[in-house]
Amino acid sequence: MSPQEQQRQDEIDRMNDEKARQRQQEASPSKPQAKAAIHTKTILVFQDRHTEEVQNYAIVGQLLWVFDESQSKKIRVTDLDVPATTKANEDRGVDFQLPVRTSGQVTPQGTEAEPSRTKTLASDGVGRS
Asked: Is the pLDDT of residue 52 over 60?
């Protein structure tokens, strides 16, 4: 067999293999597409030790606003056990941080804070100032 004939035969074999794969895919039931991104919920640990999982929220001043498809609600930051909330989320690979506040004021963690900022967290748990 000449090199040109071998090249043609290789191409025919490749095309036959591809057609066989296509037939097999058409015959087998399709699998659902995996989600492009998995959104991990944030755990809120309250002073009374009950927990709540939230996905979309924003922290404005001393209020944490929780948003879902049908409603929004506000939670006072002072109602949260901030160190326990931070730890619970850290254990799951979720970053939970309170924005710092006006100089001279004390955050719930007991540290002196800097000028006020608002932090909004998207459903993917990434903070955006």
From this structure: yes
Q: Quote the number of domains for the chain.
A: 2
Global pTM?
A: 0.51
Whether residue 72 has pLDDT greater than 80: yes
Range of the domain at 26: 1-31
Long-range contacts formed by 10-13: CB under 8 A, 24+ apart: none
pLDDT of 24 > 70? The answer is: yes
Identify whether residues 73 and 109 lie together within a single domain: yes
For residue 36, tell me if it sits in a domain.
Answer: no
CB-facing half-sphere around the CA of 104: CA atoms within 13 A = 0
* Nearest residue to 115 (alpha-carbon basis) of 94, 129, 126: 129
77 within a domain of the structure (yes/no): yes
In angstroms, what CA-CA distances link 9 with 1, 5, 18, 40?
Answer: 10, 6, 14, 52
CB contact at 8 A, 58 and 121:
yes
Task: Find out whether 62 and 80 touch, Cβ atoms under 8 Å.
Answer: no
